Amino acid sequence: MKQFISAHDVKDINAIVEKALLYKADPFKDKTIGVNKRIGCLFLNPSMRTRLSTQIAAQNLGMEAIVFNVGSEGWSLEFEEGAIMNGSTVEHVKDAAPIMGNYFDILAIRTFPTLKSREEDYSEQYIQQFIKYAGIPIVSLESATLHPLQSLTDVITIKETFRETRRPKIVLTWAPHVKPLPQCVANSFAQWINAWGEAEFVITHPNGYELAEQFTNGANIVHDQNEALKEADYIYVKNWSAYQDYGQVLSTDPSWMLTNDKLKLTNNAKVMHCLPVRRNVELSDEILDGPNSIITREASNRVWAAQAVLNEILRSN
Ligand code: CP
């Protein structure tokens, strides 16, 4: 594996899930593969789970992990080609990325979208510039449009908890939120579940919240949430801002928040969320604290997803 920025970078999703679950059973079985190797984890935006799980994963493989909060502690980076840098940016990615390429063996980056220009965000300009100029493998810690380590974790969590021989019914549901959030987690979840291809996949959201078809093609889109939830085995809850009316909050309708009453429509569905979550806005206390929530297991699995990806990169570079 040369880079990890989307589901397309993985040849065999089931194989990498198996690798992750082997690490869960025996975290230190490859504890020397990364000795004398260094990963730089660059955060242009905040994080808890991604930051900690990636460091733990790297250390389990014997790697040194160095975290740099570029967004709050580094020079303000410029990404535009040919920019006349007479404004607030101090250093061009063309100059910074090759240096990081010399300091590290793998570079992992979190770069959120601006939610101002859809064209700019969906070009993935920031992470693409690091790929172009760093000269070493790049791992996405969540980019402008995708969150692949989260989605790999989500497939791992579904595979390890589903006990039936049939295909699970998985429902991705929009949920209300007070702020405009990126589409990354929803896009990425849709991309991975479609690429995995072993589930009945339904997406439900209010009108106006359609995601980019490049990610959702293959899913059944249903605008009636109660209809979508019928016989679901897994409900993936997430808010996102509008893709068409880019970055806008079109609804805060509280009736879209998942409750125990809605859960009765399902096949005793397990409930997932990437976290962080706004309690009693995006998801109710009764769901988060109830027996159907598997969010802690899901977040814990972030370590094994990251470890499997780092192993793949270390083995092929
Ligand atoms: N789910 C997730 O990426 O969590 P953090 O933003 O805390 O890393």
UniProtKB/TrEMBL annotation:
Recorded metabolic or biological pathway in which this protein acts: Amino-acid biosynthesis; L-arginine biosynthesis
Residues annotated to bind N(2)-succinyl-L-ornithine: 142, 177, 238, 278
Annotated residues for binding of carbamoyl phosphate: 47-50, 75, 110, 147-150, 274-275, 302
Catalytic activity: N(2)-succinyl-L-ornithine + carbamoyl phosphate = N(2)-succinyl-L-citrulline + phosphate + H(+)
Domain Aspartate/ornithine carbamoyltransferase carbamoyl-P binding intervals: 2-160
Gene Ontology BP terms: citrulline biosynthetic process; L-arginine biosynthetic process via ornithine
Keywords: Amino-acid biosynthesis, Arginine biosynthesis, Transferase
This enzyme's EC code(s): 2.1.3.11
Gene3D superfamilies from the UniProt entry: Aspartate/ornithine carbamoyltransferase (3.40.50.1370)
GO function term, MF aspect, one: ornithine carbamoyltransferase activity
Annotated Aspartate/ornithine carbamoyltransferase Asp/Orn-binding domain residues: 186-310
Function text: Catalyzes the transfer of the carbamoyl group from carbamoyl phosphate to the delta-amino group of N(2)-succinyl-L-ornithine to produce N(2)-succinyl-L-citrulline. Is essential for arginine biosynthesis.
Record's subunit section: Homotrimer.
Family indicated by similarity: Belongs to the aspartate/ornithine carbamoyltransferase superfamily. SOTCase family.
Name listed for the protein in its UniProt record: N-succinylornithine carbamoyltransferase
Gene this chain is encoded by: argF'
